[in-house]
Amino acid sequence: PGDPEAGELGLAAVPGRQAAFRQGLEAAVRYAKAVGCPRIHVMAGRVPLGTDRAAVAGEMETTFIENLRYTADVLSQEDMIGLLEPINNRITDPRYYLNTPQQAAAILEKVGRPNLKLQLDLFHCQIMDGNLSRNLETYFPLIGHIQIAQVPGRHEPDSPGELNFPYIFELLESLGYTGYVGCEYAPKGDTLEGLGWLRSYWESRGLQHGGTSKAAK
Q: Quick check: 123 and 85 in contact, CB under 8 A?
């Protein structure tokens, strides 16, 4: 993430911070190896303060592509995947550089490395573009990780909001998604209480806690 106290939220697309980015990547790889996590979110970073987004877009894209190619080379030696996550600039972070799956897909195409994927957070995607079913179908070949939260409150999937998560989960199954779904939301209560929606969802599908079939038992 760079230096949060200095207002940074990632470095991969920030001109002039390439050396610090490489140091951060090296540390992230060490942490990932230690905990056995094969995926690393490569954070793009923010448009520098006092600059116009359009004026620096080209330089930031060039920096991003160079850093991502370097990242892909490093991660290929560790059998790891690098992930790009678009973060909405309407609510969460007005200055974040990478905002839409369309932008991320274009960057990934230019970089052209198979071990870099899209980290699609449906919270951010809904705020920026909506059209979740079509976006999931369109970008599914690029997706390396999914994250969820209800919109607009960013709470549990069964909290009041815009998204129908049982439908979305069935769509992911039909598309053949076999990866993890990250629950990146702010629980209304504590963590365990906040996972009650998952137990209810399993029961609605005829599954026991843990996602195993009752019939199989």
A: no
Q: Which structural domain range is residue 50 located in? A: 4-205
| Residue 148, token pair as written in the block | 């969820």
With CA atoms as reference, report the closest residue to 1 among 44, 59, 35.
44
User: What are the tens digits of pLDDT across the range 109-136?
Assistant: 999 999 999 999 999 999 999 999 999 9
- 85 is known as an active-site residue: yes
Average pLDDT over residues 96-114: 98
Residue 58: CATH number of its domain = 3.20.20.150
Single out the catalytic residue among 59, 137, 173, 184.
184
pLDDT of residue 166: 94
Structure tokens that stand for 42 in this block: 């490569």
Torsion of CA 99, 102, 107, 110, to 10 degrees: -170
Per the domain annotation, does 187 fall within a domain?
A: yes
Q: What is the pLDDT of residues 17-53, one digit of tens each?
A: 999 999 999 999 999 999 999 999 999 999 999 999 9
Range in 33-42, 155-164, 170-179, 189-198 the model is least confident about: 189-198
The active-site residue, picked from 61, 85, 137, 203, is 85
Look at residue 214 and tell me if it is in a domain: no
137 is catalytic: no
Give the whole-angstrom CA distance, residue 197 versus residue 158.
6
Query: DSSP 3-state assignment of 83?
Result: strand
